[in-house]
Automatic annotation (TrEMBL):
GO terms for biological process: DNA integration; DNA transposition. GO terms for molecular function: DNA binding. Pfam families: HTH_Tnp_Tc3_2. This is Transposase Tc1-like domain-containing protein. It comes from Rotaria socialis. SUPFAM superfamilies: Homeodomain-like. InterPro entries: Homeodomain-like_sf, Transposase_Tc1-like. Residues 50-108 form the Transposase Tc1-like domain.
Length: 110
């Protein structure tokens, strides 16, 4: 099969097909190689601690959670916390900014 046929079938460029075929000939494998980049500032264990902290205190801000974590010896920024929340699928929760209706308010409303 020609590279052009493969590229049309896979909807990728012909140069991409050549790249992967050459890589397979050289390494005998097409596994994705670890890409370069900065190391994570937290370990997997610390990520679990962060998730459990959020589960225990879901309405606290990232600054408050960062302060709690620093007491435990885990120093992370608020930005890092937001990234870990996003990775874990944790949605942010804002505490209510105004008081809820009291029973007196409800009676007046009815």
């Amino acid at each position: 099969m020609l590279n052009a046929d493969i590229s049309q079938y896979l909807h990728v460029s012909e140069s991409t097909v050549r790249y992967w075929l050459e890589r397979y000939e050289i390494t005998g494998d097409v596994e994705v190689i670890q890409k370069p980049g900065r190391n994570r500032s937290t370990t997997g264990k610390q990520d679990m601690v962060i998730q459990s902290m959020v589960a225990q205190h879901p309405t606290e801000s990232t600054g408050q959670i960062a302060a709690r974590l620093s007491n435990k010896g885990i120093n992370v920024s608020k930005t890092t916390l937001r990234r870990r929340f996003k990775e874990a699928g944790i949605l942010s929760m804002k505490p209510t900014s105004k008081p809820l209706l009291t029973s007196g308010h409800i009676k007046k409303k009815i």
